[in-house]
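Explain the record.
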Amino acid sequence: MNDHLFVYGTLMRGFDHPMAQLLSRGADFIGEARCRGRLYRVKHYPGLVLSDNADDIVFGELFRLRQPEELLREFDMYEACGEGFAEPTEYVRRMLQVARDNGAAGEAWTYIYNWPVTGLPRIASGRFLEG
């Protein structure tokens, strides 16, 4: 199992949220990263939608999970996706390509927004904190 997690919203460092605190306690911060996609403001949190357009970039943070199976199970519950949740779930956990500022690239888990984005404001900068 891949032990990297890319986060772009309320799980990032600096958020005073219990799940962000769980991530900071149970993972090692690797650095800032980005992926191809579009970011939307859903409510007080964002949603990432994949894009084929190279100009669509979402910025976030990359972590290495110390106990990936346990932590991903916790984050799946938080994001209300996976086994036991009614389909279609608001988010789905998927592997995607992420890139670091130093040029390093690889795959990481992330949560993709799975509901229609019609009517949701797009965060054009790709940075949740600027949205």
In short: The CA atoms of residues 76 and 83 lie 9 Å apart. The mean pLDDT is 95. The beta strands are 4-7, 27-36, 38-41, 46-49, 57-65, 91-100, 105-113. Helices lie at 18-26, 68-78.
